[in-house]
Specification:
Number of helices: 8
Mean pLDDT: 84
Distance between the termini: 24 Å
Low-confidence stretches: none
Largest sheet: none
């Protein structure tokens, strides 16, 4: 099911629940009930519950957005480091240079064509990708420079290899959802309490109040969906992209 359809259904469901509860409550309310006699303490509690929940939602959205940005940074760093390795080994003998470049291209091709989808499906990187990167590391570290010029390039290549490995580990850590289950429980419970406090104010069945209550519940549903959508950086909605690999290694077709 497309994510835009899931979002639309969630917002419509939230509006429908609020409207239905309001209509049912209005029918069952005593004839002498006066909605204007809501105690001040309930209005005060409702205001602070809304403020606190808004802060929590804002922190959650900032957290998942930062995680998504960090995931994209890991991809960019890894691709750039591998590109630097391919370029810096140009001073090596042709057979060594070609072997390293072929292994780098094999790793990048696996990441783009196989591992990326695996991360989206299971939230983890592949063992095959680890093996291919280890092969690149072996190519780089096992070579013994024969000239001073090669020796000058050797250490920077090792540094780029370490950067690529670190970025891959960061990408692996970012592949799974970042929000713990207890946080989701708090967000959903907070949404229920916040919307429920609307009824504590004895909302009436006027068109204006029903529309505002529906829009309020739809907004909360949208923000919760936004958090869920950003929570898995490689598999939902606005995902981290493999474009850095494709841009720096144009020979690897996406």
């Amino acid at each position: 099911m497309p994510e835009w359809l899931v979002l639309t259904l969630a917002m419509l469901a939230a509006c429908a629940v609020v409207v239905v509860i309001t209509l049912v409550r209005h029918r069952r309310a005593p004839e002498d009930e006066d909605p204007s006699e809501t105690p001040d303490v309930i209005e005060y509690m409702t205001m602070w519950i809304g403020v606190v929940y808004a802060i929590v939602l804002g922190l959650a959205i900032a957290g998942v957005w930062e995680a998504r940005s960090s995931a994209q940074d890991h991809v960019q760093t890894e691709a750039q480091a591998l590109h630097e390795i391919s370029e810096r080994v140009r001073v090596y003998p042709a057979d060594v240079r070609d072997r390293i470049r072929d292994d780098v291209n094999a790793y990048v091709g696996h990441v783009v064509h196989t591992e990326w989808q695996h991360m989206a499906d299971s939230g983890e990187v592949t063992e095959r990708g680890t093996e291919l990167l280890d092969r690149v590391r072996a190519d780089v570290t096992d070579y013994r420079p024969r000239t001073d010029f090669e020796a000058q390039a050797y250490q920077p290549v090792l540094d780029q290899m370490a950067t690529a490995d670190q970025a891959r580990n960061g990408r692996a850590d970012s592949a799974s959802p970042t929000m713990p289950g207890v946080v989701w429980f708090g967000l959903l419970a907070g949404a229920a309490v916040t919307i429920g406090m609307v009824f504590a104010l004895q909302i009436r069945r006027t068109a204006r109040e029903l529309i505002l209550a529906g829009l309020f519940s739809a907004l909360i549903a949208f923000l919760l969906f936004l958090i869920w959508d950003f929570d898995a950086p490689y598999s939902r909605g606005i995902t981290a992209s493999a474009d850095p690999f494709l841009n720096l290694f144009p020979g690897i077709k996406g």
